[in-house]
Design a protein that fits this description.
Chain lengths: 298, 332
């Protein structure tokens, strides 16, 4: 039991890490990037390619991958999101969904149906574990992933609250026009936010490949995990995303304990339950309902 | 003080072009109804697929184009329509009746689902629907009748002679398409339709005029779910086999988005045009496999960036031509 909870928390760290970029983009750009999972898998293939052909460790590969993805994020905002946002708030959903279909199938075309893993390029770390009290063992990769998630989410939170650029990004998210009046370059702020959001996917790509295998079409499932962690934790809250990831993993673990095929079902049900709670039991909503019953509100 | 000369303004619904177009549509449906007499088996099957695509496009267009609800999870209803058909047919019900019941059960389920999910906005609604589709897929897999991903078949259709069966499914698909398109056409022309189109143009402005946006959206959600469930049941009948993975695949929604984006989102004619184009592209290029899918994604991407109103939207704006009149034109 304790062991399962410990494993679930470690897995939750992975979900928080893959949700990081999605959550950041949602909170400061109000955009859900449907190509998020596909970009994650793209990063995984990039690191695998470096390891397979040049024996580059994924940790070294990240030094190239993160800037590359940040560049892709910048271009994504400049050429796709900024353009499609002019056609209303729904168009970016369609644009990024189209992009994900193109990316997934290009990856399949290039790398075929074989599943890939980064485990061969990280030596002993792939199977080493730490021993916790009570005889619980947690994998080194998992612990590293959890730490990476905490550092990344905390770093982004600090960046948004303490730095000038972070404040400019938040101001643009609140109201781009007003931000413009006080001298903030909204276009630049959005492009930087997008570069950070997509760049951070690279770290999640490394975790994806180190802890398990992936294939070209793995992006959809990863997008849903990231989305669920974001929503469970409360959309727009970075620390909430960490909690969301852990709750998602705990629900999946509970699901698996109840039924052999219950792992994913448990996660999806937790997502729906959280939505349910959000709709019907929010403090504001609840008092509003009371007032309505009392005839004080319409 | 200036006065407007009201006599110089005419409000038109039916134009000459639209009278001709609607007459041609009716004639085309009559011609298609008798077509199996002269067509080969392959052509009948392909046309059945086309009718199903038109239903899917029209339903996704109703949802996104009119209701402003972008969903990435409409495969939920496609899969459930097929699943309930199998489930009900397994009780010994005639397969064709099971198809109708399957679509109806799914429509009934769609009502509470809509009430719940419509509390979500924009992208959260879009992916939330996808999560529901995944959940439904996993739950259907648990049904022992379906045997997990192995799937099962609508075996009871074998009671019908193969030639008769093919034609029956063809006629059912044609009738479903014609019925749903007419229902949508008359709905959009009604008072509710005016509300729907007002919401499409501006939700805030519509609300300020007293349009109940959420009720109208719920109605569209249920109609779209029912139509897509019928399409799923029809697809099952023509394919016979049911593998959950195939029916609950996000690819179905990708196809719907492609058809509507290329044809023209929010335009009644656009969805039909998009479905016909998709059908032709599939016929010619599906053999290209992965590159075909890359092409579909790229075309949808380019349309959403460069031509967000789609081909019909672009064409109609340029020419003022409307073939299937669901709105009014003010002429001076």
């Amino acid at each position: 039991m304790l062991n399962q909870i410990a494993q679930a928390i470690v897995l939750g760290g992975y979900y928080a890490l893959i949700a990081c970029g999605l959550s950041f983009m949602l909170s400061v750009m109000r955009v859900i990037n449907l190509a998020h999972g596909s970009l994650l898998v793209l990063g995984g293939y990039f690191l695998w390619y470096l390891g397979e052909n040049y024996e580059v460790s994924p940790f070294v590969g990240l030094l190239a991958l993160v800037p590359l993805l940040a560049l892709i994020g910048w271009a994504l905002q400049r050429f796709l999101l900024a353009r499609s946002a002019r056609g209303g708030e729904l168009l970016p959903i369609l644009t990024t969904f189209g992009l994900s279909i193109v990316l997934d199938n290009l990856l399949f075309e290039q790398f075929g149906a074989d599943t890939r893993s980064l485990a061969p390029y990280i030596g002993d770390m792939a199977w080493d574990s730490y021993e916790l009290p009570a005889g619980i063992f947690v994998g080194k990769v998992g612990v590293l992933t959890l730490v990476a998630a905490i550092v990344l989410l905390g770093g982004l939170q600090l960046f948004l609250s303490r730095t000038g650029t972070g404040k400019a990004i938040r101001a643009t998210a609140e109201d781009a026009d007003t931000a413009g009046i006080v001298g903030i370059d909204a276009r630049k702020a959005s492009a930087i936010a997008s570069a950070i959001a997509v760049g951070s996917i690279g770290i999640a790509s490394a975790a994806l490949g180190m802890r398990a295998t992936f294939d070209a079409y793995a992006g959809g499932a990863q997008l849903l995990f990231a989305f669920e962690a974001t929503i469970i934790g409360g959309a727009g809250s970075l620390w909430g995303t960490l909690i969301g990831g852990i709750v998602l993993a705990l629900a999946q673990t509970a699901g698996a304990a109840i039924h052999p095929q219950g792992f994913l079902i448990g996660g999806h049900l937790a997502f729906i339950l959280v939505l349910f709670a959000r709709f019907f039991f929010l403090p504001g909503e609840f008092t509003y309902r009371l007032r309505r019953i009392a005839g004080l509100a319409k | 003080m200036t006065t407007t000369n009201l006599t110089s303004i005419r409000i038109e619904r039916w134009t000459t072009a639209s009278v001709v177009a609607v007459s041609l549509c009716v004639a085309a449906i009559v011609a298609l109804a008798v077509a199996p007499a002269v067509l080969g088996a392959g052509a009948v099957d392909r046309l059945t697929a086309l009718f199903i695509y038109i239903v899917l496009a029209a339903m996704w267009n109703a949802l996104a184009g009119y209701g402003g609800l972008v969903s990435i999870g409409q495969q939920l209803f496609f899969g459930l329509g097929a699943y309930f058909t199998i489930r009900i047919a397994n009780l010994g019900v005639d397969p064709f009746i099971a198809m109708a019941l399957g679509a109806i059960v799914t429509t009934v389920i769609a009502y509470p689902v809509g009430r719940f999910m419509l509390k979500l906005k924009g992208g959260e609604f879009a992916i939330g629907m996808w999560v529901l589709a995944e959940l439904a897929h996993l739950l259907v897999n648990l049904d022992t009748l379906i045997q997990g991903e192995t799937g099962t078949s609508l075996i009871s259709l074998n009671a019908y002679d193969i030639g008769l069966r093919r034609n029956l499914i063809y006629w059912l698909a044609l009738a479903t398409m014609a019925g749903l398109l007419s229902a949508l056409f008359f709905l959009l022309r009604s008072r509710t339709g005016a509300a729907i189109q007002a919401i499409r143009d501006s939700e805030e402005a519509a609300a300020s005029l007293g349009v109940d946006a959420i009720r109208t959206k719920r109605l569209i959600f249920v109609i779209a779910a029912g139509g897509i469930a019928a399409a799923g049941a029809l697809w099952l009948a023509s394919a016979i086999s049911f593998q959950p993975k195939t029916y609950f695949s996000v690819q179905w929604t990708a196809y719907m988005i492609f058809m509507v984006l290329v044809g023209g989102i929010g335009k009644f004619e656009g969805a039909i045009l998009g479905a016909i184009l998709f059908f032709l592209i599939e016929t010619w290029f599906a053999a290209a496999g992965v590159w075909y899918l890359i092409g579909l994604g790229a075309v949808a991407l380019i349309f959403s960036l460069v031509l967000p109103k789609g081909l019909w939207g672009y064409f109609a704006d340029r020419t003022g031509l409307r073939l299937l009149p669901v709105g009014y034109v003010v002429r001076e």
